[in-house]
């Protein structure tokens, strides 16, 4: 089974347990911040299901209908997860403001909520670390989005925990909905970052500058075997990178040599940037001036007399 699918299952199981625990405790102690965390985890659970189904589809090989593979399913998944986070933040803000305007509303058993938040933080931290590791290894945007969901949950759970502790010490019940607003602000920030990372590849933006630098450096290693290259284009769909370029080669060079050159360049790029599909269009040098690369080509001497 694909490692991405296994990781997504772990996320589903952990989020299910956390949603139930937070809902039960939050309702029992009348804490809007704990309830907001339950809703946050509920959307995390929905996101985990989305991630699970997206990585299953994305792991399918290219077919006649999807000749470039199914990688963009992961980007769609990440975008949907970001929208869910925004919705969670809006609901939390609504409930917190309503509680603030209604006046004091005693929170019973704040220390119970503290214990639940501490346990939730620990579980989410461990699971998010696991998801981050798998996401980095498999370059899965869907799992990375799910990991960020849980890591945000860690931060917000700690925030709620501190708010409940302050409430227990001071008795100021408005601290509970105030902390819920802080949670909402953190969620919105995470949703914005995630939406950019997931959505932009759907518009076929270029690979990051660092990755394009690696590509150009690899091509440059073979500079003595070609004249120049141009029309380098890059994009990413899920974890799949797609690269194409035009490589100008000596006009006297044999086709077998050109083919091997393109294969060497492709293999070196794939070794540095896994999950990459490369198309190199080789074209002969048409320079009207004296081209040193063409003139130094060993195949030139084998050309028939008078051939261009």
Automatic annotation (TrEMBL):
InterPro entries: Cation_efflux, Cation_efflux_CTD, Cation_efflux_CTD_sf, Cation_efflux_TM, Cation_efflux_TMD_sf, CDF_Transporter
Transmembrane segments: 12-32, 38-55, 76-94, 106-127, 148-167
SUPFAM superfamilies on file: Cation efflux protein cytoplasmic domain-like (SSF160240), Cation efflux protein transmembrane domain-like (SSF161111)
Keywords for this protein: Membrane, Transmembrane, Transmembrane helix, Transport
GO biological-process terms attached to the record: intracellular zinc ion homeostasis
Topology of the protein relative to the lipid bilayer: Multi-pass membrane protein
Recorded GO CC terms: plasma membrane
Cellular compartment(s): Membrane
Domain Cation efflux protein transmembrane span(s) in chain numbering: 9-203
Domain called Cation efflux protein cytoplasmic: residue spans: 207-285
GO molecular function terms listed in the Swiss-Prot or TrEMBL record: cadmium ion transmembrane transporter activity; ferrous iron transmembrane transporter activity; zinc efflux antiporter activity
UniProt family annotation: Belongs to the cation diffusion facilitator (CDF) transporter (TC 2.A.4) family.
UniProt protein name: Ferrous-iron efflux pump FieF
